[in-house]
Structures are given as C-alpha cells and as structure tokens.
C-alpha cells in the first residue's frame, strides 16, 4: 500500500520538486500540501504550481486527510509548524529545513521522543557519502606532522536566506569531532594573523541558481586534499527526502539521520 505523505512548504523550490517526483512514485500518495497562507499561490492545486498538472491537492494550512509522514522544506517558522503538525497527526517527520535557531532544534529533539524524525541538512546520497569520506580523512590526518588545515567552502543560489549552509556546518561539526577542533570562523578580514591549527573556517558563495556545492579542503604542508560534491539540480535532495519518508513511516519514535535511511 502506498505511503501517505504531506509536504510542508509545497510551493517552494524544493516543495515543487517533491510534488513532482512524489506524484510519479507509485509507492507514495501525496494527500496534503501545506503552505504559508500569505503565499501568492495559496489555494491553488499543488500539482499545477509544480508544473505537472492537477493532483487534486490544494495548497492549504489544514487538512482532514491522514498521513504517515510529513516532509518539511520551508523556513524556521514553517519547520516549527511542521513539528506541531507531525506530533498532532502522530506522523513521522522528515526535517530538511536549515538555519534553525536552537529553540527550533530543541523542539525537533523533543518531538523525536514521541514520533520518528529523520533530520538532515542534506538529503543527498552523495553529500552524506562525502561526509563519511571526510570523517575518514579527518581521523587519518588529526595528528599528521605539520597539521592539516580544514576549510569548508559552499556555493548556493542567490535566493538562499541562511549562511553558511546547514550542510557546511555539519561537515565542519563531523570533522571537528574527529580532529578535536574547537574554534570556528566565518570568512576572514583585516589582519587575523597566522592561521591557528585549532580552527575550521567557513566560506559562503551566493551566485546565480547554484543548487548546492560543497568543497572540503584539508591543507597540509606540501600537499592538499579537496573533496567537492555538487548538485546539478534539486532532485537529489527531493529523492532522498521521499526515501526518508518511506523509511520513517511506521518506525518507532526516535531521531534518525540519512545514514540510517541510506544504510551508510
Ligand atoms: N536537507 C536538504 O536536503 C535540503 C534542505 N534545503 C532547505 O530547505 C529550506 C527550503 O529551501 P527552498 O525550497 O529553496 O526555499 P523556498 O523559499 O523556495 O521554499 C520555502 C517554502 O516554505 C513556505 N513557507 C513559509 N512559511 C511556511 C509555513 N509556516 N508553513 C508552510 N510553508 C511555509 C514558503 O512560502 C515557501 O514556499 C531551506 O532551509 C533550505 O536550506 C534545501 C534543499 C535541500
Ligand atoms: O538552500 C538550499 O538550496 C540548500 N540548503 C541546504 C543546506 O543549507 O545545507 C542543502 C543544500 O545544500 C541546498
């Protein structure tokens, strides 16, 4: 039987891809598409907005339909609403929204005590695989003579509202945990002096319509490792989120990540 899902932020860049790809998946049934009531297309058919033709689900704030999982690609306020919707519906939550304040993050962790939650800053298979590769590199280089300088560079479209990306922050967190790094900086200016070893720096580029690219640099004396993972469209994220919804539906309450979904 198809997994009944709801999409929060359904008229957004990601929401539209979820509607399009979810509608094409015979193992999924999109029964609700939530949107901000002030959105200019509120009340319209979600399929029409996504460019795939009508799916008989309108962009709304409420639904009488029951669903097994809700996927959130919205904004912090939308994520807050998605958590409440999921808990009230006793549905699994796939949380993809980034740039969340600590209070929102705490609410997600609290919800995971009563519903299954898959929470990841990137739902892309290749990004989560690259995270694993970076952890291997960090472990191997943590005591390398001369040290390894780690910098995280991310590139996104001009419309992205948060910075650095949630994915970049997660790369830094995973590497820092392996290398015992405790200092984080965002860009550099003035005369900061020589770079200390105990530091990870983030650099955010915002240009055009880039759907997401991350480069992780391990800079040694005499040699450098650079790992780059880039998306050419948003479908990698939508596909991963839809897979996460299938994974989480019916699971016991708890906090899961994309390694659990992908078996990494
Ligand atoms: N985890 C992942 O794999 C990925 C995460 N993201 C994140 O997803 C979020 C959304 O990204 P985009 O789709 O590009 O943004 P977007 O701005 O195109 O879409 C956000 C949508 O949320 C809607 N929204 C706002 N408040 C709402 C509410 N209270 N209830 C329901 N909907 C509401 C907006 O009207 C808009 O349609 C961002 O935080 C982004 O960083 C984006 C791509 C991949
Ligand atoms: O806003 C985006 O587009 C993306 N945001 C996510 C993040 O902040 O990590 C994931 C992906 O890079 C695309």
TrEMBL record:
The keyword NADP applies. One of its GO terms (cellular component) is cytosol. NAD(+) binds at residues 9-14, 96-98, 120-123. Its EC number is 1.17.1.8. It comes from the Bacteria. (S)-2,3,4,5-tetrahydrodipicolinate binds at residues 157, 166-167. GO terms for molecular function: 4-hydroxy-tetrahydrodipicolinate reductase; NAD binding; NADP binding; oxidoreductase activity, acting on CH or CH2 groups, NAD or NADP as acceptor. One of its GO terms (biological process) is diaminopimelate biosynthetic process. Gene3D superfamilies: Dihydrodipicolinate Reductase, domain 2, NAD(P)-binding Rossmann-like Domain. It is an enzyme of class 1 (oxidoreductase). Pathway: Amino-acid biosynthesis; L-lysine biosynthesis via DAP pathway; (S)-tetrahydrodipicolinate from L-aspartate: step 4/4. Coiled coil: none annotated. CDD domains: DHDPR_N. Residues 127-262 form the Dihydrodipicolinate reductase C-terminal domain. Catalyzes the conversion of 4-hydroxy-tetrahydrodipicolinate (HTPA) to tetrahydrodipicolinate. PANTHER family: 4-HYDROXY-TETRAHYDRODIPICOLINATE REDUCTASE 1, CHLOROPLASTIC-RELATED, DIHYDRODIPICOLINATE REDUCTASE. Homotetramer. This is 4-hydroxy-tetrahydrodipicolinate reductase. The gene is dapB.
């Amino acid at each position: 039987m198809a997994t009944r899902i709801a999409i929060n932020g359904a008229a957004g860049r990601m929401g539209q891809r979820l509607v399009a790809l979810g509608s094409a998946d015979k193992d999924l049934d999109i029964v609700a598409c939530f949107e901000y009531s002030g959105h200019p297309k509120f009340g319209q058919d979600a399929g029409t907005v996504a460019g795939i033709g009508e799916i008989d689900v309108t962009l709304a704030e409420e639904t009488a339909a029951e669903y097994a999982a809700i996927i959130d690609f919205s904004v912090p306020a939308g994520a807050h609403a998605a958590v409440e919707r999921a808990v009230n519906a006793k549905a699994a939550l796939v949380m993809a929204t980034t740039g969340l304040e600590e209070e929102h993050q705490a609410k997600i962790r609290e919800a995971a005590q009563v519903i299954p939650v898959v929470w990841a800053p990137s739902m892309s298979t290749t990004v989560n695989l690259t995270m694993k590769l970076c952890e291997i590199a960090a472990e191997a280089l943590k005591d390398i003579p001369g040290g390894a300088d780690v910098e995280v560079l991310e590139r996104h479209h001009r419309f992205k509202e948060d910075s650095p990306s949630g994915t970049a922050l997660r790369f830094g967190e995973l590497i820092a945990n392996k290398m015992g790094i405790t200092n984080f900086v965002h860009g550099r200016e003035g005369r900061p002096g020589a770079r200390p070893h105990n530091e990870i720096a983030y650099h955010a580029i915002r240009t055009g319509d880039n759907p997401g690219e991350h480069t992780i640099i391990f800079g040694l004396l005499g040699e450098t490792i650079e790992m780059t993972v880039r998306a050419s469209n948003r479908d990698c994220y939508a596909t991963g989120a839809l897979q996460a919804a299938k994974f989480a539906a019916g699971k016991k309450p708890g906090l899961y990540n994309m390694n659990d979904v992908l078996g990494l």
